[in-house]
Write a structure and sequence with these properties.
The protein has one helix at residues 233-236; strands at 56-57, 67-69, 72-76, 81-86, 91-96, 106-108, 111-115, 120-125, 131-136, 155-157, 160-164, 169-174, 180-185, 195-197, 200-204, 209-214, 220-225, 248-250, 253-257, 262-267, 273-278, 289-291, 294-298, 304-309, 315-320, 330-332, 335-339, 344-349, 355-360, 370-372, 375-377, 384-385. With 386 residues, it is mostly beta strands. The strands form nine sheets. Strands 2-3-4-5 form a four-stranded antiparallel β-sheet, with no helix packed on it. The chain starts with 55 loop residues before the first strand and ends with a strand.
């Protein structure tokens, strides 16, 4: 399973990541490195150069964003398996799920949580991979708009796992037992990974609406209809309604994009839009990364990465590539690291958008990178974790 096949290096000073031991302070427990999903990672040193350390092949596309916790790497594959590796790339265990694992795992209290495309939520012993409990979260109706690669991934807050489902419910589940504490029905498929802040759970649905739900009671605090709410997909021949991205929260603002082609800054308390940025129909599927007042985002048909001011929505810079951006950027130090569907990882200066380095793998990125210590881990549609 441990495959060291050669990779094509892109010309320049560039190479891919991965060098030293994990630093405990940089271990993350869930998608986007925390419940507010800001996508900031501490590499310990400037990320000015990258080189390949190892790679691990699976039997299907790796669209799951990996998670590093306790010196272990957890990630899913379209081959229906969740994998656990050590930081040398050696497999420690793997678990056979009922369907493809495109969600991103979360780890808490010695358990690893993930869901599969059959709407099963699993809790495994993080050390051994043995099943602790499994909960089915309903049935997904036929989704007419077939671009449907991502799943809502588990969010951990306190003793509760929050996860959206294709059946239209946001679930709150006891992480020790798998018992449902509450569920909130939106009437639409949920692919957006929820965020948590100030005892509220925030997420979008596939009908163009955004929600704030009381995390303890499951009661609606507010609901915002985004631009896609009034659009009719049939008129366009593709989806212009769905919110797929996980929201990121900073400065009392939620920031998330949609398939209508907008990025929004939303007041987390009131649900009112503070600003919106128009990508002119180009989808915003990726979750943004936020550091200080800088928001870094990617878009699909427009094929660019850009940065905006968190408080005004004004564009600060734009970096054009040759393919859509569907995976999510991250920030470490003053470097924004962005995967493209041209199979290239880009390292950009956070403040200017100028290219620092690039590294070519060759296939599309749906998996987003993460950093632990000064190693970067990312999956690729070629079925490999790098």
């Amino acid at each position: 399973m441990h495959n060291m096949k050669g990779l094509k290096l892109f010309a320049g000073t560039v190479s891919l990541v991965l060098l030293s031991a994990l630093a405990a302070h940089s271990q993350n427990t869930q998608f986007r490195n925390g419940p507010q999903h800001t996508g900031i990672y501490d590499a310990g040193t400037p990320f000015n150069n990258v080189s390949l350390h190892w790679q691990f092949s699976t039997g299907g596309a790796v669209r799951s964003t990996p998670l590093v916790a306790g010196g272990k790497i957890y990630f899913g594959s379209a081959d229906h398996r969740l994998y656990c590796l050590d930081t040398t790339g050696k497999q420690l265990w793997r678990f056979e799920a009922a369907a493809g694992v495109h969600s991103s795992p979360a780890v808490s209290a010695g358990l690893v949580f993930f869901n599969d495309r059959d709407n099963n939520l699993y809790a495994l012993n993080a050390a051994t991979g043995r099943l602790q409990w499994k909960r089915n979260l309903g049935q997904t109706p036929v989704y007419e708009w077939s671009f449907d690669y991502y799943l809502s991934s588990p969010l951990i807050a306190g003793s509760t796992v929050y996860c959206g489902s294709g059946d239209g419910n946001m679930y709150a589940i006891d992480k020790a037992t798998g018992n449902i504490q509450w569920k909130y029905n939106t009437g639409a498929i949920i692919r957006s990974t929820p965020a948590f802040h100030n005892n509220q759970v925030f997420f979008g649905d596939c009908d163009g609406r955004f929600y704030s739900i009381n995390a303890l009671t499951g009661k609606l605090t507010w609901m915002l209809k985004l631009n896609g709410d009034t659009m009719h997909n049939e008129e366009y021949g593709f989806d212009r309604k769905a919110v797929i991205a996980a929201p990121a929260i900073a400065g009392n603002l939620l920031v998330a994009g949609d398939r209508a082609g907008y990025l929004y800054g939303i007041n987390e308390r009131t649900g009112e839009k503070s600003w919106q940025f128009d990508y002119h129909v180009s989808w915003v599927l990726s979750s943004v990364a936020i550091k200080d007042s800088i928001v870094v985002a990617g878009t699909s048909d427009g094929a660019f990465i850009n940065a905006l001011n968190l408080y005004t929505g004004k564009e600060l810079w734009r970096f054009q590539i040759q393919a859509p951006v569907w995976a999510s950027p991250i920030i470490t130090g003053n470097t924004a690291i962005c995967p493209g569907n041209d199979g290239i990882l880009y390292g950009l200066d956070l403040h200017s958008g100028k290219e620092i380095w690039r590294y070519s793998i060759g296939e599309k990125f749906f998996s987003s990178p993460v950093i632990a210590g000064n190693k970067l881990y990312t999956g690729n549609d070629d079925g490999t974790l790098y």
